[in-house]
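Pilot study result, target chain (737 residues):
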Amino acid sequence: MTKDREIPKHWPIERSSEAGNHPRAANPFSSSSRSAGGAGGAGRDRDSRRDRSPKNRRDRDSETPHRAASSPRTSQGEQMGTRVLKWLTSWQLWGLFTLVLCGSLGGGALMMLLKLPAVPNCNNNQWGMISASEHMYCAQKAASEQTVEGLLEAISQVNQLPQDHPLRPELNRQIQKWAEQLLDLAEHTFQEGKLTEAIATARQVPSNTEAAQLVEERIERWQSIWNEAQEIYKKAESELEKENWGQAIRLMRQLTVVGNTYWETTKYDALNQSIEATRKEGQTLDEARNLAEKGELKDILEAIKVVEEIEPSSKLYKKSRSLVAEFAKQILDLARERVEEKDWQDAIYIARQVPYNSSVKKEADDLIDLVRARSIAARATVRSLSDAIAKARLIGPTRPLYGEAQQLIAQWQDSIKDVAYLEEAQQLAQGGTMRDLKAAIAQAQQVERNNPVWEKAQSEIDGWRSRIESTEDRPYLRQAEQLARYGDRPSLEAAINAARNIAPGRALYQEAQAKIQDWQLEIQRLEDRPILDRAWSLSQLGNVKAAISMAQTIPPNRALYDEAQSAIQGWQQEIRDRETLDEAYRIGDLAQTPQELLRAIEIANRVSSGSSLRFSADAAIDDWSQRILSLAQDQSTYNLEAAVNIAKIIPYYSSVYPRARREVEAWEILLNPPPPPLAEPDTARTNRNTSPSFASDSQTRIPADASSQPQTEAIDDASPASDSPNGPEEGVNTDRG
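Predicted structure:
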């Protein structure tokens, strides 16, 4: 409210004389004012309250113009000083100051009480300047990191204190604890698979601690466990390389009890994965082996392609390389087989299939060069041998087949002289005369036996000798052939004698012997034909036994022996058929029952189909079958079921069989008539009203129709087992001819 009060511009004039009595009239900076302020503060307060009263305010306002008029040059500084003095003497100011001062002192004291002591600087190198508690604090801080460096740092911190320090027992206890923790860290490091680091950590355990006594024992145990695990792992890998999966798995399981987490988990899993991967690769190698065992080139190449899938990091990579080398050698063996067969082109083609990265690739290249040289030398001429030698000399001393090449070169060099003999002999033989051929033989005989062209020379010699012998012996053979054309026994014997002039080992000997054998057989036919013809005549006259005796006079190894034996077998079968048919006639003539007739039929059916008595046997079978059917028909007049059973025994190979089947079907209908048709309800009612006797008429009419009109459908030939309860016995001929 006071700050908005308007200050008068002039003080009243009539009160200007009393300015000395008003506190504002006095100079605030004068000594009297300071005295009065110091001694009469209360009086000033009362004067101030009087000045602020309404009456005094009106008096001042009335005096202001007079004062302004009387002293227009009153300084502005005096007014400011008055206001400052009033402010400094205000109780509010001093109360606020007191409150701030007390709060500041209290807050400072509280902060002093709550402030933590300063943390020691553990990075300070001036350890002599810090206390034992600070040493202990820094050591515990370093040990709390639970690292090797931290524990060693902690031990180093407390060891800097003197041995007679009051805290030495506590410090030693902490050192023991930290040493044990250090050894535990080493154990943990070992379990993680870091043996070297674990040993290095363990060896840093202070020697004056109880844990130091366990260090060497612990290290020895670690090394023992590690060596055992390594040995097991190496053995397992070795078994994998041998493809012994079972043994590798057993070794892998031993890792689970070695006493090291790293080997029991990480290395165990790695070995397990390695076993699984290696087993699959082993299956790949087995597949390749199975392909290669077939021995064909395409299969071996496919096997190599399969083996090439094995990665270099595999445990079976070395074995796969050895398999590739083995398959490559197998290809080389195939190529060498073609070389032995003198199939040069195929041998070269096969040798080219050897893989470029195989250990026998150089050998394959040498083999190709030697095959080409051998193919040239095979022409067996002086020039071709010289070219082959030059080709083989391209294989240097460092090549795999250098030794073989040198052997071939020496062999071909020796052959050149013999080949010259052979070439000269071939030129002589071109004349074609007996003299030329004999001279050629003499020249070719100079070829040495150990020479490769010796076989060729012998072949040429054999050919020339054959030509000579053919020329010498052909007249004998022609003479024999001319004699044999007459066809009589004396001419054939003369032909045989002429052909026997050709000695064994001669070129035409085999041909002469074949002709001699033919002429001897012809003589035998001339001698034995009358005997066999006489036997046939006797058989046609019915004297079969005499015919057999006559034909048996032809001995074995004769030209007509097989024909005579065949005729004898036929006649003997005819005798047996006659006896069989006679027995059937005897039984059939005396038969009175269907079973006896069936017995006669079965015996008659044993007559062979090719026998002349087969027609008679068939006629007898039909006659006896008709008699059985007649018996069945007679029986049907009073016993249909018995008639059916009799008719069914007629065999299917009888001509009466179809008729018997129709009779049987008709009788079975009579025995088992079909049910009457069911009429509709309305139709049945109408029929009852219009024709009451319809049902009885239909029932009466059905068997009459069935008995008077037998079925005419065709009856197929059935097997004896299905149509005849007594089928043909074993050995019975079912062919009717």
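One observation from the pilot: Strands lie at 11-12. A full batch analysis is planned for the follow-on phase.
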